[in-house]
Inverse folding.
């Protein structure tokens, strides 16, 4: 049981939240994008979180089994919104169809902004956890002084 | 290591760092759907840790569950995080004091 392995738990949380924030920012940036490499308008992306067993570089498999419950988090997949794109009436637009409608991404910037705030707060919570653990490690090291 | 008190303090710090690990994993999984808050029963685990058995984390009951099946309360975890860190500092301070006393005895009370 080592405090150092707890740091990797917090690090996994930070990495997952950053991936989530990246996707949210991408959604906001592309909320008006009508052309993509896959064709059609941009489709909203979201991160899927799942629990993950983390171990520090030096921990053996036996050690991990013995101590258990070192549950980190990882992004297990990215979900792509496959619902029908929003149709907006813009006759002058180069991507408008015969009736003058343009297929726009189904992105709600307000929703993504709120999610982004959540991701940023969760990231901060992980940073606080990491600095508390860092202090504990430092105090253990100070026993040698 | 030095005497029974230091031994108990050592176990106490072990248990605190394990609990901190559980708290850190709760915080990391604050947005994971279906994740349930884990914790140690500190009192009983400390009693059994003194007799040398290995502590086990278990699910916490009575917390409000969110729509995605997750029941992590960041406020609760933040409190535990701070509490554990302070308890750990206290314990390490006490051990440091014990070591200082032994050191002083070795040096026949001459230095510091």
């Amino acid at each position: 049981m080592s405090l150092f392995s707890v740091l990797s738990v917090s690090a996994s949380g930070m990495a997952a939240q950053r991936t989530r924030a990246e996707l949210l920012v991408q959604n906001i940036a592309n909320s008006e994008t009508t052309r993509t490499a896959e064709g059609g308008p941009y489709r909203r992306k979201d991160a899927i979180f799942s629990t993950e067993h983390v171990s520090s570089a030096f921990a053996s498999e036996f050690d991990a089994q013995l101590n258990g419950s070192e549950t980190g988090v990882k992004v297990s997949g990215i979900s792509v919104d496959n619902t029908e794109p929003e149709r907006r009436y813009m006759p002058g637009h180069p991507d408008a169809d015969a009736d003058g409608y343009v297929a726009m991404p189904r992105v709600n910037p307000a929703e993504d902004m709120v999610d982004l705030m959540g991701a940023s707060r969760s990231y901060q919570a992980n940073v606080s956890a990491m600095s508390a653990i860092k202090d504990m490690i430092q105090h253990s090291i100070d026993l040698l002084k | 290591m030095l005497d029974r008190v230091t031994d108990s303090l050592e176990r106490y710090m072990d248990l605190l760092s394990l609990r901190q690990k559980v708290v850190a994993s709760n915080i990391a999984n604050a947005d994971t759907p279906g994740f349930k808050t884990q914790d140690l029963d500190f009192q009983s685990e400390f009693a059994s840790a003194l007799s040398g058995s290995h502590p086990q984390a278990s699910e916490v009951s009575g917390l409000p569950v969110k729509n995605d099946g997750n029941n992590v309360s960041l406020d609760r975890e933040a409190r535990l995080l701070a509490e554990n860190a302070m308890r750990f500092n206290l314990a390490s301070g006490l051990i440091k004091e014990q070591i200082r006393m032994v050191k002083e005895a070795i040096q026949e009370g001459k230095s510091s």
Observations:
- The interface with chain B takes residues 1-3, 5-6, 9-10, 12-13, 16-17, 20, 49-51, 66-73, 118-119, 121-122, 125-126, 128-130, 132-133, 135-136, 139-140, 142-143 of chain A (CB under 8 Å).
